[in-house]
């Protein structure tokens, strides 16, 4: 929905990204829990995403921050775009894709779409946080042009704050 059709590969035309609707919240919660549960072993603790509830998702939906990813009209993923007050940047959070659709380019498509949405909001930079211990995700974001601008420690884990300029700096 948010990328112009001429930028889409044929399989991408089967994906719809749009603001979340109330009836999608249970499926989104299930996908978030499924996606973030394996990270527990990597971190040695429960990630904050596993504390999500239908109520917290509904609040983000009501704030127009929560997006649903559909493939052939089936809910397969989600992400949040919100303003990070501490860093005065728009932030993509809680990117989650159901396990059977992972590693197929959908995460890249989500990030391209999120970047496009943030550009439409008039913002020039976007941030995301990831765990330093999660090498696969760190590489994913680095490959897409994100750069670490800060590190912080949360409950014993190093979190990388990464940003990307969405406009060319000529």
Question: Briefly, what is this?
Answer:
With 170 residues, the protein is an alpha+beta fold. Helices cover 29% and strands 32% of the residues.
Structure description:
- The chain is of the alpha+beta class and 170 residues long.
- It has a single domain (5-123), classed as Aminopeptidase (3-Layer(aba) Sandwich).
- It has helices spanning 25-36, 39-43, 54-62, 106-120, 135-143; strands at 15-19, 66-71, 74-84, 89-97, 125-131, 147-154, 157-165.
- A seven-stranded mixed sheet has the order 1-2-3-4-5-7-6.
- The longest helix has 15 residues, at 106-120.
- The radius of gyration is 15 Å and the shape is globular.
- It starts with 14 loop residues before the first strand and ends in a 5-residue tail after the last strand.
- The model has no long low-confidence stretch (mean pLDDT 91).
Helix-strand topology string: EHHHEEEHEHEE
CATH superfamily caption:
Gcn5-related N-acetyltransferase (GNAT)
Strand order of the largest sheet: 1-2-3-4-5-7-6
Outline: globular
Structural class based on helices, strands and sheet pairing = alpha+beta
DSSP strand tally: 7
Level of helix content?
Answer: 25-40%
- How many helices does DSSP assign? 5
Question: What's the CATH architecture name?
Answer: 3-Layer(aba) Sandwich
Q: What is the fold-level CATH name, i.e. the topology?
A: Aminopeptidase
Note poorly predicted spans. none
Provide the CATH top-level class: Alpha Beta
| End-to-end Cα distance | 29 Å
**What oligomerization state is this entry in?**
single chain
Q: Please tell me the overall pLDDT.
A: 91
